[in-house]
């Protein structure tokens, strides 16, 4: 019997050697996690991300030179992030950045396990959910069924915690998946993320202003971080 193959690549970005060592020890106990590198600053972390396919990043917010959240904002396709911090007040700031979980230092092992379970749940949902077919429709798995959704029929997509609602001409479909995952599969010429909770079909926009976009009679807010994009 071969040992279970390691499935998920992760990196640790942490400038305190002891904290990094504790995390490394925790990671090594999980056969599905493969540590491809650990580093103490954002520059080195960027290098690791460019060399390796990284699924999960443990990120300390108090890094030398560039702080954790500033580093995250600059990443084009960030991996799933579990934040490690000794300070409570950062959870709110990270809300718009799709952080999978926050671990308060010193990190108890059982709390680490909970965070990793959340990460795996996200990854499994992603693997199972999206099958990209031809460009004019997508198939999304729901349980054992594959549901075909015609892209032209979509008005907008909204996120409700771990679910999304896809509002179409005929009906509203609900799936358990992160909105960021469906965003990756949509043609950016047809769809635009205007808010952490909303993606719109550009051809369905009826009214737009700096703060609100109306689609199918529904007024949707434009999020602060998405404003530059929503000037389409």
From TrEMBL:
<dbReference type="GO" id="GO:0003677">
    <property type="term" value="F:DNA binding"/>
</dbReference>
<dbReference type="InterPro" id="IPR046947">
    <property type="entry name" value="LytR-like"/>
</dbReference>
<dbReference type="Pfam" id="PF00072">
    <property type="entry name" value="Response_reg"/>
</dbReference>
<protein>
    <submittedName>
        <fullName>DNA-binding response regulator</fullName>
    </submittedName>
</protein>
<keyword id="KW-0238">DNA-binding</keyword>
<keyword id="KW-0597">Phosphoprotein</keyword>
<dbReference type="InterPro" id="IPR001789">
    <property type="entry name" value="Sig_transdc_resp-reg_receiver"/>
</dbReference>
<feature type="domain" description="Response regulatory">
    <location>
        <begin position="9"/>
        <end position="120"/>
    </location>
</feature>
<feature type="domain" description="HTH LytTR-type">
    <location>
        <begin position="138"/>
        <end position="206"/>
    </location>
</feature>
<dbReference type="Pfam" id="PF04397">
    <property type="entry name" value="LytTR"/>
</dbReference>
<feature type="modified residue" description="4-aspartylphosphate">
    <location>
        <position position="60"/>
    </location>
</feature>
<dbReference type="InterPro" id="IPR007492">
    <property type="entry name" value="LytTR_DNA-bd_dom"/>
</dbReference>
<dbReference type="InterPro" id="IPR011006">
    <property type="entry name" value="CheY-like_superfamily"/>
</dbReference>
